[in-house]
Specification:
The chain is an alpha/beta fold. Helix content is 47%, strand content 13%. The strands form 2 sheets. The chain has a 4-stranded parallel β-sheet with strand order 3-2-6-7, sandwiched between helices. Strands 1-4-5 form a 3-stranded antiparallel β-sheet, with no helix packed on it. The relative contact order is 0.15.
Length: 239
Amino acid sequence: MNGQTMVADRILQFNEGLADTTLELPPGYRVVNPFSGPQKERVREVTTAFYRRHYDDDRPRRLILGSSPARRGTAVTGVPFEDAKLLESDTGVDVSDGYAVSRPSAGFLHDVITRYGGRPRFYADFVMSFVCPLGLVKTTPQGREANANYYENNELLKALEGFLVGALERQLEFGTDTSVCYSIGSGGNFKFLTKVNEGRGFFKEIVPLEHPRFIMQYNGDRKEEFAEKYLRALRGEGD
């Protein structure tokens, strides 16, 4: 098959385009761009190895979209929602330095992936990504940096909206199966995706799924229930 038609190439080209992105944000916010930051060479090495391993074909896949990369998680590696140790095993690249993905969140998703049929089967059916594919951080009143959500206030959303809609359009060029999109986050992320979709018609359906952080931090005793909800949704079985 022609290498230029592979899903891996499309995703990697999308990431390379993000390397040149500059955004004007309200005071107190800044962008974390893994594709142009100080670790860009390692990010390029990790992402190339990962996507070549799992996406070296032209098979249509459904999108699973979080809000934006965590500043010490995906914003370090460039691979959405991945467990650090499994990513190292997949790519042969040491990603542990500076990488602090929420272990409970990654563990929950890894459990769902395993129960779906394992990593090869899961990644053959889905692409995990973000509505805002660059990390966002804000300065707290204490002078520390914390992760920010693109939808957390109107001023920030207004500054980002054109970029977000354009990023969604470009991710459809992966060869995406647009019959359904999954929103990781059943609040602000799902609300924004639904609003954009009503105007643009990107997807036939958007299915909200609770964020793994919310599940593990506040509903750990219901983890099994939420995992089954994820699996039913991903398999198209409904509630």
